[in-house]
Amino acid sequence: TERLEEERRLREEMQRELQGSLQVLGGRVEDADARMNKALQRLSAAQAALQEQCADLAVQTEVARREQASSLMGVKSKKESSPEALEQLRQSLAGMELRLDGRCAM
Question: Which parts form a coiled-coil structure per UniProt (predicted)?
Answer without folding.
Answer: 4-60
